[in-house]
Predict the structure.
Amino acid sequence: MKTIQAKFKRVKKIILTYGLIAGLMAIAMLLYSTIQCYTRPDSRDSIILNYGMLFLAFSMVSIGIKNYRDKYQNGKITFKKAFKIGFYITLLSSSMYVAVWLVEYYIFMPDFMEIYAAKVLSQLKSSGATASEIAARAEAISINNEMYKKPAFVVLFTYIKVFPLGCIISAISALVLRKKIRINKVLFAID
């Protein structure tokens, strides 16, 4: 019984440590992006930069799995166990990201969707998009704005932004870092 509790405590420690680090890194990216949006409305958003920063934050998943494998599993871990650890690190860090976004959105910047919409449409106009392309994008933004008025959709959309990337990184990390636990078998040769 003590060994099960000890294993659970070790897994929990890894998940909390690396989940918090990944969450703080993702939150830093979120705050940076928000500041950019408000202070430099004419700047171009870089999806590559945002997802690159999220990718960097979710690198903690790989580090957490490797740390657990090397420190507590004698260098061996199954794909399933590694993926579970990565999944929970991702869930914790994504939940932190969502919580901070909710506070940021509802308390500090309830006008974010309007500012974001104006920025996107301005960028479309300056890039030479046709009137029909701009109108289509404005309609899509309007639909998103309506859905964003419901907190459940805010939470859902925010999770959709970060959680899948973390799950993909968890799966890749589990695949790369897994080392099968082999049971030594004695083979008897029959003459």
The CA atoms of residues 27 and 97 lie 6 Å apart.
